[in-house]
Amino acid sequence: MFFKTIKEKMSYLKSWQWFLLLYLGGSIALILTSYGIKLLMTGLP
To answer: Keyword annotations for this protein (predicted)?
Structure first.
């Protein structure tokens, strides 16, 4: 049931919305990874 609603919502997404979603997701992933590497380099508090 949960996956069905997701599938329905995904079908409504336009191509630019997909691009925006991927762009935002990628940016967040990049920020998190760089922050994680920084933490590893400096050592955990």
So the answer is: Membrane, Transmembrane, Transmembrane helix
